[in-house]
Amino acid sequence: MRALKAISLALVVGIPLGLISCGPSGPETAKPGTPPFIWNAAQQAFQKGNFSAASDQLDRLTGKEGEFRDRAEVLQTILSIGLAHGQIEWADIFEDGSKYARNNYLDFKRTSSGARSVANQIVMRVAEIQHKSRERLTSADLLLPVTLPTLNTDLPVEAERVKKGIALQNSEQAMALIRMQQRGVMKTVAQFVAGGDVAKARELMAKGDYKIPKDTFFTAVAREFTDLTDLYGSKKMDDSGKIKMLCEEADKALALAQPSVDTKAVQKKLDAVKKKLPKS
After folding, report:
1. CB within 10 Å: which end of the chain, N or C, has fewer?
2. Is 142 helix (H, G, I), strand (E, B) or coil?
3. pLDDT band at 29; cut points 50, 70, 90
4. How confident is the model over 135-151, as pLDDT tens digits?
């Protein structure tokens, strides 16, 4: 996504230019700028843990007719939610650290506010993708043809320093943010694929041909949209209109999943969020 371009440019340099696409007659080089080339670039970036770069590539396929559209929208939905979680957690860490930052208080607050602003852009984009694609993504299984890289999902060591009010160098902060985004994406993929178990998700996706059951996907979307309403609470971005919008999108996603223990749990949490909304 555009909000993550700066990070993407730093990461995408590791992607080989000779991307391969398999056609009916065997492997052949995909032409730059074509959907196969873009999809392969997104896959390779994802598998390297270059999630911002992968998102930028996927944005070139979402909403556009073609064989890669649906799979790009499924992956972009999951990936974007994970990136948003990474930004939101990073913002919260700086918010906590601002209490101890003294001379750097305003810098900490600005960093927190900036991270939330980026998260907002990502959340609004993924809500738009789901709003437009939801009725199309109703097959029994949704293709997720990527493998999950081996990445550390622990908080980066810099996070503990920030929580104590210790300022980071720009280079340290940039790398720590990348690790926060990786943490958010890995944990989100695991939620969609394996109930939050990262190791199990990696195992299930190892062959690169994993398919998410439709009910699992839409239940997870509803749960994530419900959780993301926290970004717009009164102590953060204070935007009840966006909370209402995410609740509506969560309701629509739940309507596409067969009733289950999981859908009932999400609905209960969603209803609790709605009760706190100001009366119109």
Report:
1. C
2. strand
3. confident
4. 888 777 999 999 999 99
